[in-house]
Amino acid sequence: MTAPTRAKLADGRDILFFALPGHRSQQVPDRRPLPPRDKQHSELRFDRSTGQWVIIAALRQDRTYKPPPDQCPLCPGPTGLTSEVPARDYDVVVFENRFPSLSGAGGLPPVGDGFASAPGHGRCEVICFSANHTGSFAGLEAPHARLVVEAWRHRTAELLSQPGIEQVFCFENRGEEIGVTLTHPHGQIYGYPYLTPRTATMLHQAREHRMRHGSNLFQDLLAHEVADGSRVIARNELFTAFVPFAARWPVEVHIYPNRFVPNLIELDADELDGFAQLYLDVLRRFDRMYSVPLPYISALHQYTDAQPEGYFHVELMSIRRSATALKYLAGSESAMDAFISDVTPESVAERLRDLA
Q1: Could you tell me if 57 and 14 lie in one domain?
Q2: What does UniProt list as catalytic (predicted)?
Q3: pLDDT over 90 at 52, yes or no
Q4: Are both 177 and 124 inside the same structural domain?
Q5: Are residues 139 and 266 both part of a single domain?
Q6: Which DSSP string corresponds to 32-68?
């Protein structure tokens, strides 16, 4: 992949165009009369009862909400007046979110006593998977999906190099049932100034496992799943997809590289190809489960050299528990973080295997 083409939006935000081989980005000047960017978009507040940071981002109340298709801000804007993507066409594009949860450079201060707060430093980006408003990631051709993976990889490397960024999280929310307000196929990339609670918990478990068994937790989990086989749904030479033994969601699939790597940056070219292929395979199985597209969250778990037990993997999850019913995260899940599953992981894995 050639380096992305960089430009600036009308209010100074960065935008990067990633092109397929032989293609050129067809960008135009952004001529929108956007107001100057507020330097302080959000605030971090420390919750002493949990030991976790909470992001307060009131500006996001004004973000675009379910616009009609002809006003989609992620479709190409050939006039430079109508879209976040001033271009006649594009393959994959990444830009700074206009309504970010986190923005600006800087680290976290010591917590100290009393109420602790800090500027909401970090980075929030939007990644548009294609210019096709009615498409989906599952509908991409293999080279195009590989380009999205390259864009994730590029942004991971660049954001991790920025001062104050502790974790880079690439993810996609798909479907109004999940809470999506823009239906154009897209995802987001967050650069957090702290380690997120889920990541901290998993790394703690991995360190405990290392102390007890002298091996990597994630490698051992993958080996056990492969040896058992009842929850494996797809596997190639380089990657394995399975429903985890203790799945929390009605539909949940994890994708692991067969070799230990901490993040996308460390995957070689063949592994990037293998990942894109298996990722597409899983998403296409999702869309064959029911008569309507499956709503899902896709979460890329990545780690740095400072987290040596971290094993790159993807977790895909859906709240749809049947063709007509959704699993709502109510009292036990939302208040106690105690998940109750209505289906067995083995039955979900069997269903997904049959959808090849």
Answers
A1: yes
A2: 186 (tele-ump-histidine intermediate)
A3: yes
A4: yes
A5: no
A6: --PPPPPS---EEEEETTTTEEEEE-GGGGGS--S--
Q: Tally the domains of the chain.
A: 2
The annotation status of 133 as a binding-site residue, yes or no, is: yes
Which residue, 188, 222, 237, sits at the end of a domain?
A: 188
Of 58-67, 251-260, 276-285, least confident by mean pLDDT is 58-67
What residues make up the domain containing 108?
Answer: 5-188
Mean pLDDT of the chain: 95
Q: Which residues pair with 6 in a beta bridge?
A: 16
CATH value at residue 93: 3.30.428.10
The count of other CB atoms within 10 Å of the CB of residue 21 is: 8
Dihedral over Cα of 14, 130, 198, 217: its sign: negative
Helix (H, G, I), strand (E, B) or coil at 223: helix
Task: Classify residue 32 as exposed, middle or buried by CB count within 10 Å of its CB (0-12, 13-18, 19+).
Answer: middle
Domain end position, chosen among 188, 218, 240: 188
What are the catalytic residues? Answer: 186
Same domain for 235 and 296, yes or no, is: yes
In a domain, 335, yes or no: yes
In a domain, 194, yes or no: no
Does 75 carry a binding-site annotation? yes
Average pLDDT of the segment spanning 180-187: 96
DSSP SS3 for 2: coil
Per-residue pLDDT tens digits for 128-169: 999 999 999 999 999 999 999 999 999 999 999 999 999 999
Best CA proximity match to 115, nearest among 56, 40, 195, 201: 56
C-alpha distance across the termini of the chain, in Å: 30
Cα separation, 98 vs 13, in Å, equals 8
